[in-house]
């Protein structure tokens, strides 16, 4: 399964996460940072099972984490 989301879908999912979970995106990204070192789909599964997130939200969070991590490497 591809982990590519359209930009619009990605942004819409991220926008819903605080409302659905009661936690800000920055909190979730910190959770991912402090979590286990896994591959993309394994991280998605980890968030789903350990933090009871919906698949789309978990996937959007990991995608956002990877985007921000890649951007930090470019600076």
Rounded mean pLDDT score: 92
How far apart, in Å, are the first and last alpha carbons? 30 Å
| % residues in beta strands | under 5%
Estimated helix fraction: over 70%
Uncertain ranges: none
**What would you call the quaternary organization?**
single chain
Count of DSSP helices? Answer: 4
The largest sheet is: none
Order of helices and strands: HHHH
- Indicate the overall shape: globular
Radius of gyration: 12 Å
Structural class: mainly alpha
- By DSSP, the count of extended strands is 0
Structure explained in plain terms:
The model has no long low-confidence stretch (mean pLDDT 92). This protein is an all-alpha fold. The chain has four helices and no strands. The radius of gyration is 12 Å and the shape is globular.
Which labels suit this protein?
4 helices; mainly alpha; single chain
Topology:
Layout: H1 7-21, H2 25-34, H3 40-51, H4 55-74
Summarize this, please?
This protein has 4 helices and no strands. With 75 residues, the chain is an all-alpha fold.
């Amino acid at each position: 399964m591809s982990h590519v989301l359209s930009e619009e879908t990605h942004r819409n999912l991220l926008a819903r996460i605080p409302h659905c979970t009661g936690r800000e995106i920055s909190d979730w990204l910190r959770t991912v940072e402090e979590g286990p070192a896994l591959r993309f789909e394994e991280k998605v599964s980890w968030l789903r099972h350990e933090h009871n997130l919906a698949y789309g939200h978990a996937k959007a969070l990991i995608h956002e984490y990877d985007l921000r991590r890649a951007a930090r490497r470019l600076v």
